[in-house]
Write a structure and sequence with these properties.
mainly alpha
């Protein structure tokens, strides 16, 4: 996906035809969007899932927590991609 640090010029104008919105900077710059890298020294990384069950919410297992993190990372990545696609965030 191409970098889009600025949104395109807005077509919104007042009654006289003067632009009300010009170029808009991305809401979140690239320096705020560093990607977290996780390295596993043993075993495979969990695969993101659309549903998850935690047997005991007071004492989740390590496997359950890793699965939760994988699911959360997947949702955040998808959200970030939407923001980038709409020019609201630099990639």
């Amino acid at each position: 996906m191409a970098s889009n640090p600025k949104k395109q010029d807005s077509m919104v104008a007042d009654r006289s035809g003067n632009p009300m919105l010009g170029e808009q900077q991305a809401l979140v710059g690239a320096s705020n969007t560093d990607v977290l890298t996780i390295t596993y020294s043993a075993g495979p990384a969990p695969t993101p899932a659309t549903a998850q069950t935690i047997a005991d919410s007071a004492a989740p297992t390590v496997v359950e927590l890793l699965q939760y993190c994988a699911n959360l990372e997947d949702v955040l990545t998808k959200t970030r991609n939407v923001l980038i696609a709409h020019g609201l965030m630099a990639d």
